[in-house]
Amino acid sequence: MFFQFGDFLSPVLTGGITAAAVTATVSSDSSVLLAMLLGMLLGMAALVVLSLLLMPLFGAFEVMVPAMLSGMAAGILTGMLAASGVAGSAGVIGAGLIVGVMVFWFVQWRNKALQGRAL
Amino acid sequence: MNTSVTRKKWDRLARFYRWSTRAAEQRWEPWKRALFSRMDSGDILFLAVGTGEEIPLFPEKRRITAIDISPRMLEKAQDRALEYIGNISLKQMDAGNLVFHSETFAQVFTSCTFCSVPDPIQGFQELYRVLKPEGELHMFEHTRSRHFPFREMLRIMNPVAARVGPSLTRDTVSNAQKAGFRVDEIQNIYLDIVKTISAHKPGAEH
Question: What does the pLDDT read at residue B1?
Answer without folding.
Answer: 59
